[in-house]
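Notes from hallway chat w/ T.B., transcribed later so I don't forget. T.B. wanted the structure written out for a chain they're using in a teaching module, and asked if we could keep both sequence and structure tokens in one place. Agreed to drop them here.
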Amino acid sequence: MLRLVVPAAVLLLMVSVGMSLDPSRLLGESRRLGGWAWARLLLFTFVVPPAAALVLARVFGLVGGERLGLFLVGAAPGAPLLTRNIARKGFDRHLAASYQVWSAVLTPLAVPVVVWAAAQLYDKDAWIPPSQLLLLVLRQQLLPLFAGMALMALAPRFSRRVESGLNLAANALLVAGFAVVLAAVGPAVAHSINPWLPVASVLLAIVSMAVVRLLLRVDDVTEQTLAICNANRHVGLALLLSGRYVEVAHAVPAIASYALLAPVLMALYARRLAPAAAAAAVGP
């Protein structure tokens, strides 16, 4: 069920995000950040979070599906969950969308390498064909995003009416899907779940945000926007990838833990920084 619900929720979210964007501003934000900053984001997006997930798994004794689930969450960037909502807190919505498109385009190239390298650490062999990821990214992220942008251009009044409801429905569908599956598989795996798993999930989100704030070194609004986007890992992609290596029931607790806890942490972070971000965005 979750393998059907999550892609459907992501697709609806991407259409909703596309409806809220201005194409010219989307391109402008990409150019404004500059090539060197985007190059550093390669490290912060595709290397640091999965490496941190493996370290946290070792520290907290996560093994098997829990370790794999947390690692795949760290390896999968670019979720659309908060891209639209953070604009209400004074963050840069178009920069967030630029980051999401950038990470989606690079996912078929970077994620197979990261997964293969991590597998070597455990004397295993794992390779994800980039072509499979490319089709997945096109079908679930880029095409729905562009479809939402096209709808806004062709039917702006209709798009404005349905955008908010579409976003709410997709988020509710995602949370409900995880809740139902956890209720179904929970009794079977509860006895083996590490109680430190939620702590590891929260720490992974904190590391993902902190590495951007500490090392990117640009203006505050840009840092804050990209920090919260980097913590917004793509749990739907992590779930799909987990099915290739382990029974999904064993990976669900780690993936669901991040899916349910990280957005709370990101919302608290956004709320704390909202006044400063809004002031900076408006300027003197």
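Follow-up for T.B.: The chain has twelve helices and no strands. Might be a good example for the class.
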